[in-house]
């Protein structure tokens, strides 16, 4: 008999409604979206335009989805998209995006239009989880007829600039819980065996296999290296199972996988991956690494618009 590798479900059998309900019943609120995110956005309203682009109704809770825009949006300026919190448990993606707006967004006034969605998945943010209440990963759901309302709402927000966006940076983390919780849960949900992996120690980026833009990726890596350490390749020359194509850089087929960084036709796209569990990194460093990545990505795009 196969030993159960996750406390929910039957090994080898995908979850049904009963297993998803059992999983959902175990999720508890651990922090507040209103306190940590909405209150910070409120303080930014005097300097930037704030738009509500959707609302998540997960009874008994409801979450307004907010984005921050350049107040003086101009059609003749290049557009830059920053997203965070697609995976709610990846904390520095949310707080790094907000910190960037507070500290640096004004520097680009008159040079770029900025659109920042700092917390795409607030339910998951509060529960420090990867999935939404339906046990769906929003970051595999950015496609037509998305099953994840978080993903669908963001795609609707971005749709008017989908072809005109110059740069999109999506802020993520790779954590020890990826290996201890989220990968085993994914395997259990899908009725597949759980394959052990290796968590890289350090920052890396994920470019687009179809449009890798290596100089852009390296500009982001170089900026972040001043703040925190860059993840080395493992013994196979890989990071999380993908070949390292340059120091700290791997590539994924973004659109094919339904990843957030593929939702526009931007020339420059990247997903950041900070490692908050490293003994060599503090939460403040992780936030600062995200900020450095955003600034470097915008600066490179402005310097190389075509």
TrEMBL record:
| Cofactor(s), names only, from the UniProt record | Zn(2+)
Say which domain of life the source belongs to: Bacteria
Q: Which residues form the Peptidase M14 domain?
A: 29-306
Give GO BP annotations, semicolon-separated. Answer: proteolysis
Check the record and name the Pfam families matching this protein. AstE_AspA_cat
Q: Which Gene3D superfamilies match?
A: Zn peptidases
Record bears the keyword Hydrolase? yes
Q: Which GO terms describe its molecular function?
A: hydrolase activity, acting on ester bonds; metallocarboxypeptidase activity; zinc ion binding
Cite the entry's keywords alphabetically. Hydrolase, Metal-binding, Zinc
Say which family it is in.
Belongs to the peptidase M14 family.
What this protein is called in its record is Peptidase
């Amino acid at each position: 008999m196969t030993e159960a590798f996750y406390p929910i479900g039957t090994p080898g059998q995908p979850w049904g409604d009963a297993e998803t309900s059992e999983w959902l019943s175990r999720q508890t609120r651990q922090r507040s979206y209103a306190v940590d995110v909405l209150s910070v956005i409120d303080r930014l309203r005097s300097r930037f335009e704030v738009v509500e682009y959707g609302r998540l109704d997960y009874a008994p809770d409801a979450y307004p989805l907010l984005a921050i825009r350049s107040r003086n949006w101009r059609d003749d300026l290049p557009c830059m998209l920053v997203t965070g919190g697609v995976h709610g448990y990846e904390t520095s993606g949310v707080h790094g995006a907000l910190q960037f707006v507070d500290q640096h967004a004004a520097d680009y006034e008159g040079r770029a239009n900025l659109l920042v969605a700092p917390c795409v998945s607030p339910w998951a943010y509060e529960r420090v989880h990867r999935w939404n209440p339906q046990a769906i990963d929003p970051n595999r759901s950015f496609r037509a007829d998305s099953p994840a309302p978080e993903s669908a709402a963001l795609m609707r927000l971005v749709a008017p600039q989908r072809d005109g966006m110059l740069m999109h940076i999506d802020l993520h983390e790779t954590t020890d819980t990826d290996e201890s919780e989220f990968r085993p849960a994914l395997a259990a949900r899908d009725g597949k065996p759980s394959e052990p992996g290796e968590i890289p120690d350090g920052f890396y980026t994920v470019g687009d296999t179809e449009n890798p833009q290596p100089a852009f990726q390296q500009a982001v890596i170089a900026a972040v290296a001043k703040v925190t350490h860059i993840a080395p390749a493992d013994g196979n020359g890989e990071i999380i199972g993908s070949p390292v194509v340059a120091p700290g850089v791997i590539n994924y087929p973004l659109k094919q996988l339904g990843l957030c960084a593929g939702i526009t036709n931007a020339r420059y796209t990247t997903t950041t991956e900070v490692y908050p569990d490293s003994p060599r990194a503090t939460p403040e460093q992780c936030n600062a690494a995200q900020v450095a990545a955003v600034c470097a990505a915008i600066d490179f795009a402005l310097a190389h618009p075509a």
